Amino acid sequence: MRLNLTKGVTDISQQVYDLHMTIFMICVVIGVVVFGAMFISMYLHRKSRGAKPANFHESTKVEIVWTVIPFLILIGIAIPAAKTLIAMEDPSNPDVTVLVTGSQWKWHYKYMDNDVEYYSVLATQPEQIHNKFEKQQNYLLEVDRPLVIPTGQKVRFLITSDDVIHSWWMPAFAVKKDANPGFINEAWTRVNEPGIYRGQCAELCGKDHGFMPIVVIAKEPADYQNWVDEQAEIQRKAKEEEQKLLAMNMSMEELMENGQKVYQSTCAACHQGNGEGLPGIFPALKNSPVATGDVKHHIDVVVHGVSGTAMQAFGKQLSLKDLASVITYERNAWGNSTGETVQAKDVNAVIKGQ
Ligand SMILES: [Cu+2]
Fold first, then answer.
1. Separation of CA 254 and ligand 1 centre (Å)
2. What are the residues whose beta carbons fall under 8 Å from the beta carbon of 310, sequence distance 6 or more?
């Protein structure tokens, strides 16, 4: 039974499971009947027992029978399968709508009814991945900020992508939808039990495809509402802080310290911790013309990305403070000794196109 599908935690996943079991049993019965008839005939009517082959052909009766029986079996399968499929594809009248955007290699969640949005990134330590620490129970299935949804309510997912094709797959909900750039796919779920559910990107999307897991926490509606209000408040405050930051200058030490953290969690996967990149794939930042040249151009590359390359736009993913810190860090780490600090207002100016 460990090899079988799981029943999941939604009515739809239960229906999918039942459908799978029904069709599986039909296949088992067909297999037993067909192979049973074959082997019994071969054994009882073998040549050494003096069997003589029958010599009939074009039996209309037999042909009708072997057409009608499979036809009836297929209809019997198609009716429940179509019912379940139609139910799965009906995202109408949702209670909550979440925009899910895949990007290399993380998920972005935006609650359409509230002022809440954030990125959800792999939380497994790199040391576990590189076999320096022991691998823990939820290895590669844990994120920093899970998606939170209410139980007992219809949650609609609008699924799209920033770059290549990803796929949002949550086995316990029987939800698996491709995230295509330029298109919005719909899916929905209604989770019965509170809990933590884990899934993964299910479409080979590049180098770190195996490192963009999905974690969903289903909470009782009242807890969910508290969580949403709290998040909306935190995000409102963060925006205010950001406005204040524009009038301030951070010190080199502060910028470098925060910048190193941001670099390790956001940039090091491609440009590597030592800033040397991967030759031929990801450019080095150490001694690079971008990281040691014109500041505005450097900010522009980080904020807007470089189209046609793997360099994403980080303008929306990182706060002004984190952007200023990480750019300062890149300009002053690994022997890139420009001695320049980049402040939140410098980044803001580039974002606003000034
Ligand atoms: Cu992906």
1. 34
2. 104, 206, 270, 282
Beta-carbon count within 10 A of 113 CB: 11
Beta strands in the chain (DSSP E): 96-103, 106-111, 116-120, 147-150, 155-161, 166-170, 175-179, 185-189, 195-201, 213-219
Calpha distance 324→331 (Å, rounded): 11
CA angle 321, 110, 152 (to 5 degrees): 135
Ligand 1 centroid to 222 CA: how many Å?
Answer: 32
* Spacing, Cα 106 to ligand 1 middle (Å): 7
State the distance from the centre of ligand 1 to the C-alpha of 305, rounded, in angstroms: 19
User: Ligand 1 mean position to 209 CA, how many Å?
Assistant: 5
- Residue 129 Cα to ligand 1 midpoint, Å, equals 18
| pLDDT, one tens digit for every residue, the chain (354 residues) | 788 888 999 999 999 999 999 999 999 999 999 999 999 999 999 989 988 888 878 889 989 999 999 999 999 999 999 999 999 999 999 999 999 999 988 999 999 998 899 999 998 888 888 888 888 899 999 999 999 999 999 999 999 998 899 999 999 999 999 999 999 999 999 999 899 999 999 999 988 899 999 999 999 999 999 999 999 999 888 888 888 888 888 889 999 999 999 999 889 988 999 999 988 888 999 988 899 989 999 999 999 888 778 788 888 788 888 999 999 999 999 989 888 899 988 898 888 887
Report the SS3 class of residue 240. Answer: helix
